[in-house]
Structure formats: C-alpha cells, structure tokens
Design brief:
It is a single chain. This protein is of the alpha/beta class. It has 2 domains: 149 residues, Cytidine Deaminase, domain 2 (3-Layer(aba) Sandwich); 197 residues, Dihydrofolate Reductase, subunit A (3-Layer(aba) Sandwich), CATH 3.40.430. It contains 12 helices and 15 strands. The strands form 3 sheets. It has an 8-stranded mixed β-sheet, sandwiched between helices. The longest helix has 15 residues. The chain is elongated and about 70 Å long. Bound molecules: NADP nicotinamide-adenine-dinucleotide phosphate. NADP nicotinamide-adenine-dinucleotide phosphate binds next to strand 6, strand 7, helix 9, strand 10 and helix 12.
Length: 357
C-alpha cells in the first residue's frame, strides 16, 4: 500500500509527539500516536508515552476525552503497537481491535527480534489494514529519522547490551586534563550546560575510579529535560568505600543510584555491559577519564562519540591512551553521513559521530 501526503504528514507528527517523552521513558522506546477520522480531516486524539510503566502513546491517543464514543478511523504511530502480555500495561493491539480502528499506519516495526511484526500480524488477522513505511521505503527520510530518534531502544533490543556513548572534553591539542590531573574547567559554562543536556538523555553515566577520586563529581543532571536522574556507574578495582573523605556519589540524595562494578569480575567489558543491561539500563554515557575511554575504544564498544573541544593548548597532559594503532590507515573513523559539528559560544566545537568498525 502506498503512503499519501496526509499519511506522511501525520507520521511526522508522531515523531514530534514521541520526542516529548525523552528523558522519562527509558528503557522503553519514545512513542507518539495520533488518531484521525477516515478521511483524515479530524484528529480524534493524540498522545505520547510519558513515563516508564505508564500508559502507552496509543492509549493516550485512543482513550482521550475528545474521542469518547468514536470508533473506526486511522491510527498513526512511529512504532508498531505492542502485542506482548509480559508488560505492566495491556497490549495496545487489543485496544485498537476493540475500538474497530480501520487502518494502522506506522513508521517502524518493533525492533525486538522476538516481536518483529507480530503486532501488525495480529491487527491484519483482525481485518485491519496495516502499513509500515519501513517495509515499503526503507530509505525514506522519516524512517531514518525514526531510527535515529529511537537509536538507543533499537540498539538495546538487537544487541542486548546498553547503547554506549563516549563523551569527553578536550583542549585543541587533545588533552583531557593537565599532567597533574586538573581538568576544571577545560570548556566554558555554556559547553558544560550542553553536556548536562546530553547527560539527561542517558539512563546512566559511567566513569572510572580515578575520576571519582580526583574530581569527586556529582554526576547528576542539573540542566536538561525529563525528571529521571541517571544511574552513576563507577568501574574499577579500587574500593571507593574506603576513601577517607566523603564522595558525593556515595553520600548524596541519589546514592541509591550509584552502582559500583569491578571489570575484573567479568571476562570482558562487553560481558559487564550485558550484565548492566539485565538491570534494564539501556544507555550509558561514558564520561572518562582517559583510561576508561581507552578501554571502551579498544574493545570497539563505543556506539557514538561526542567530543567537546575548547580553544586551549596545554601540551602533554592526560589524554586517550595508546590504542595500538601504528598506521594512519588503521585510525578509527566515522560514518561520514552521520557526522555533526556544532559551534558553541563562537569558540567551542562539539563533534559527534558514529564510529565505523
Ligand atoms: N576532560 C574530560 O572530559 C575528563 C572526564 C573525566 C575525567 N577527566 C580527568 O581524567 C583524570 C582521570 O582519568 P584517568 O585516566 O586517570 O582515570 P579514569 O579513567 O577515571 O579511571 C581509571 C580507573 O578506572 C578503572 N577502570 C576503568 N576501565 C577499566 C577496565 N576496563 N578494567 C579495569 N579497570 C578499569 C581502573 O580502576 P582501579 O584502579 O580502581 O582498578 C582504572 O585505574 C582526572 O584528572 C579527571 O579530572 C577528564
């Protein structure tokens, strides 16, 4: 079935609705839904998934006040309606069938390999016309935008380990701290606020023990969206509970959200991440220091990298360690079409890219 302009318009609206849940629904996906009359001239309801454990977007769209007593019509959604019964909420496909909705138009099928397409199948078996843009035109810009929007969820479903985003701040000559360990501050206040906004999009922040001992950071979100504070994951063998001064991550009001992991307890960092994923943590922003970042780079575990670059030069300090790369042709490079460069404050740069392994 082809998609008309109205379908594309309403599907793009589902992405805008879905975005409103960012920072609040993890590890669930960002989902937006819109219910219209058959001819599309009236919007009967719209909604988005607002918080983890709460009603799904389809429920907000279908059971809203404006839609009382209405049935039939078309339901638009950025992702395939759920069919599973092992959730805290009932499956959305049953609600759609009950409401006698005629058409369901979506962008993406459920990326969970165990579910993939089952929601659409059940709807079709009940006489509902279903269309997935991803199946008809996988290169469509809305399909690409929908995948990017839910890159964390899709990754988590397919790889069963958290999405790893490496982030650091460096001087123009690539240093993360001076040789004495001082890194406050490499970047400007505006850049640091931007870093907080990035943190707010992740379920957990991870650093190595040296950063905790040297900087005694809070690792919380002070600017950004949503109301979820990230978990603080600290890795290392050093027992932080024996440090003779109070560490903020172990004593503040979020101390229950601090998780200590010893990588030596696992065969590899990858195995450690799988274990973290079992705790329903689907995304981690790895913030340093250099040693920790190096380990993630060495094991090809960085799914995305953001570097804040300040216009300063300090000469040799602390940076990313050797990755054992001898030839420039072996350098870690990025998918060209996914590189972003942003200029902040007229002098700071933010580089974001997806490594190509
Ligand atoms: N510019 C930035 O963006 C930025 C960000 C963060 C920190 N910093 C600066 O960086 C400096 C600290 O960096 P750093 O490189 O010395 O230390 P780090 O990466 O913070 O911590 C290193 C420690 O983490 C543990 N660790 C990390 N990955 C591990 C792995 N795969 N396996 C086993 N243990 C692992 C080990 O702890 P154990 O020794 O306990 O085993 C290791 O000694 C500080 O000066 C801080 O200010 C800068």
């Amino acid at each position: 079935m082809s998609f008309n302009q109205q379908d594309i318009f309403y599907l793009s609206k589902t992405l805008e609705l879905a975005e409103k849940g960012r920072g609040m629904v993890a590890p669930n996906p960002l989902v937006g839904a819109l219910w219209t009359s058959d001819d599309g001239t009236a919007i009967w309801g719209e909604g988005f998934h607002q918080r983890y454990g709460g009603a799904h977007a389809e429920v907000w769209a279908i059971e809203g006040k404006e839609s009382e007593g209405v049935s039939g019509g078309t339901l638009y959604c950025n992702m395939e309606p759920c069919v599973h019964t092992n959730k805290q909420t009932p499956p959305c496909v049953d609600l759609i069938i009950r409401k006698k909705i005629q058409r369901v138009v979506i962008i993406l099928t459920d990326p969970n390999p165990l579910v993939n397409g089952d929601g659409l199948k059940k709807l079709a078996e009940n006489g509902i016309t279903v269309s997935a843009l991803e199946r008809i035109d996988p290169q469509h810009h809305l399909v690409q935008a929908a995948k990017k929007q839910n890159e964390i969820f899709i990754h988590f479903m397919q790889k069963q380990r958290p999405f790893i985003h490496l982030k650091w701040a460096q001087t123009l000559d690539g240093q993360l701290a001076t040789s004495s360990g001082d890194s406050k501050w490499i970047t400007s206040e505006a850049a640091r606020k931007e870093a907080h906004r990035l943190r707010a999009k992740y379920q957990a922040v991870l650093v190595g023990t040296n950063t905790v001992i040297t900087d005694n950071p809070k690792l919380n979100v002070r600017y950004g969206l949503g109301d979820q504070q990230p978990y603080r994951i600290i890795i290392g063998t050093n027992n932080l509970r024996e440090i003779p001064y109070p560490l903020q991550i172990l004593t503040d009001e979020l101390k229950e959200r601090t998780l200590l992991f010893n990588p030596a307890d696992f065969p590899s960092l990858h195995c450690m991440l799988v274990e973290i994923g079992k705790q329903k943590i689907s995304s981690i922003l790895v913030e340093g220091g250099g040693y920790t970042l190096t380990q993630f780079l060495k094991e090809h575990l960085a799914d995305k990298i953001t570097v804040f670059i300040a216009p300063k030069i300090i000469g040799k300090g602390l940076g990313i360690d050797s990755l054992g790369i001898e030839k420039m042709s072996d350098a870690l490079v990025f998918h060209e079409q996914q590189l972003q460069l942003k200029i902040l404050d007229n002098d700071h740069f933010i580089f974001t890219g997806y490594p190509k392994y």
